[in-house]
Write a structure and sequence with these properties.
Blueprint (H helix, E strand, L loop, with lengths): L4 E8 L1 H6 L4 H8 L3 E7 L5 E8 L9 H9 L6
Antiparallel strand pairs: 1-3, 2-3
Protein name: DUF4177 domain-containing protein
Length: 78
């Protein structure tokens, strides 16, 4: 059985990479099912992060705009 994946890249600034602090965008991507596949330090100190997540999911995870839109809807009685 072959699985299909989505891929994306994220960059960490030299300061953020040197401090090894958590990155809010990477935290959000992790919550959405993205997994870090590789790290590549660049000459200027920036770190390139390669991420992937499976595309064939029965219930796909919502992306950031969908979560934001859901949180913007006022809650009311059922």
């Amino acid at each position: 059985m072959r699985a299909r994946f989505d891929f994306t890249f994220h960059t960490l600034t030299p300061d953020a990479a040197a401090r090894a602090e958590g990155d809010a965008t990477l935290d959000l991507l992790g919550a959405q099912g993205w997994e870090i596949r590789a790290l590549a330090p660049l000459r200027d100190g920036t770190v390139l992060v390669a991420l992937q997540r499976p595309r064939d999911e029965e219930m796909p995870l919502p992306d950031a705009p969908a979560i934001s839109a859901a949180l913007a809807d006022p809650l009311g009685p059922p």
